[in-house]
């Protein structure tokens, strides 16, 4: 993607062997942002032998309220800063 001039990628790890790449195609859910205190959570379910990502609300979500979930990135030495600005922000995505 760097060689193509694409600055952002939208990847979702389904399981150890499967990653869904919605960078070039995918629905608007690929733009859901991370938050350390999210109002939703993501769950992988299987329908007719196909794995699907479903976003569930944890609470009522108001009109014009941003939908967020915790990306749950693995802990790594190189940290990705979190910009959610909530009181309980961990400071990094990983």
UniProtKB/TrEMBL annotation:
SMART domains: SET. Residues 1-72 form the SET domain. One of its GO terms (biological process) is methylation. One of its GO terms (cellular component) is Set1C/COMPASS complex. Its main location: nucleus. InterPro entries: Post-SET_dom (IPR003616), Set1-like (IPR044570), SET_dom (IPR001214), SET_dom_sf (IPR046341). The keyword Metal-binding does not apply. One of its GO terms (molecular function) is histone H3K4 methyltransferase activity. Residues 78-94 form the Post-SET domain. Keywords: Chromatin regulator, Methyltransferase, Nucleus, S-adenosyl-L-methionine, Transferase. Transmembrane segments: none annotated. It is found in: Nucleus. Pfam families: SET. SUPFAM superfamilies: SET domain. PANTHER family: HISTONE-LYSINE N-METHYLTRANSFERASE SETD1, HISTONE-LYSINE N-METHYLTRANSFERASE SETD1A. This is SET1A methyltransferase. It comes from Circaetus pectoralis.
